[in-house]
Design a protein that fits this description.
The protein is 40% helix and 12% strand. It is globular, with a radius of gyration of 19 Å. The protein is α/β, with parallel strands linked by helices. The protein has one domain: NADP-dependent oxidoreductase domain (TIM Barrel). An 8-stranded parallel sheet has the order 9-8-7-6-3-2-1-10, with helices on one face. It has a two-stranded antiparallel sheet with strand order 4-5.
Length: 309
């Protein structure tokens, strides 16, 4: 089990260097930590999908902010390896090189969680876990994370770590939200069994669960296409309507309700959510003050209950 305190919500750094430039990112980071936020998540591949970017832009911005504010000790820092074009996969040599690249960009000697961003079945788990273990022993990494792994591969990784005396995976990061609940079938039981904490990404479903989407309404966002697609799913619309009702009762933003629903789930340490403007930050942090009644929690869950769940 993770020994880290992630706070109420983890701030997603995927927007830094994408929809939030350096100044906007600094302002968001200031507002988040000043408002009681504690953990920041990034990756070496953020934001390589933007023309002119190569990856590492988010880490660089976070590192420059940490240096300028002197707040490294105030932040649980998380980054990842595996998807970057110049550092793909989980071969031991790649993991060692990638963490040094990330630490340089972040301007720090260590990160709190270092994630395998995706599984790499071409590399024996003994090799990849051995590399992560070396980083922990060297003081470069506090805890090991796994993102986008199947339940079977997480169980296998746990067995390898135990057999070989290696640092186990203690944190997972997977797609999970009120309208994307596929991991509840197999992965969540595995996390419970293995004592692994979940920090879900896409927790607001690309902004759909922010409350700003409605049929026939245009939203100016880089993710409007993927978020708007949920409007075609009656179950997702029902969940959004339920979240709006609960938000009104609780006097909080819809986003806070969606994040608080995740916080109430088994294994969740804290959901990840991004903000590209300072104005969006309070809605994320408001999740900490949501207190569901049993009826409200059932109302939200029932709208998208997985088949057989």
């Amino acid at each position: 089990m993770s020994a880290l305190d992630f706070g109420p919500v983890v701030l997603g750094g995927n927007v830094f260097g994408w929809t939030a430039d350096r100044d906007a990112s600094f302002a968001v980071l200031d507002a988040f930590v000043d408002g009681g936020g504690r953990a920041v998540d990034t990756a070496d591949v953020y934001s390589a999908w933007i023309p002119g970017n190569s990856g590492g832009e988010s880490e660089t911005i976070v590192g420059e902010w940490l240096a300028s504010r002197g707040r490294r000790d105030d932040v649980v820092l998380m980054t990842k390896v595996g998807f970057a074009r110049d550092r793909p996969g989980l071969a031991a040599a790649n993991v060692r090189a990638a963490v040094d690249d990330s630490l340089r960009r972040l301007g720090t000697d260590s990160v709190d969680v270092y994630f395998a961003h995706t599984d790499d079945q071409d590399v024996p788990q003994e090799e990849s876990l051995g590399a992560f273990d070396e980083l922990v022993k060297a003081g470069k990494v506090r805890e090991v994370g796994a993102s986008n792994f199947s339940a079977a591969r997480l169980r296998s990784a746990a067995a390898v770590a135990q057999r070989e005396g290696l640092t186990p995976v203690t944190v997972a990061q997977d797609k999970w939200s009120l309208v994307e609940r596929g991991i509840e079938q197999d992965l969540v039981p595995a996390l419970e069994e293995l004592g692994i904490a979940q920090t879900p990404y896409s927790s607001l479903a690309s902004g759909f669960l922010s409350g700003k989407y409605a049929p026939g309404q245009h939203v100016d966002s880089a993710r409007a296409g993927s978020a708007g697609a949920y409007l075609e799913d009656p179950r997702a619309v029902a969940a959004l309507d339920a979240a709006r009702d609960v938000a009104a009762d609780q006097d909080v933003p819809v986003s806070a309700v969606a994040l608080a629903w995740l916080r109430a789930q088994r294994t969740v340490a804290a959901p990840i959510a991004s903000a590209r403007t300072v104005e969006q930050v309070p809605g994320l942090l408001a999740a900490a003050r949501v207190r569901f009644t049993p009826q409200q929690l059932e109302l939200l869950s029932a709208a998208t209950e997985p088949v057989g769940g």
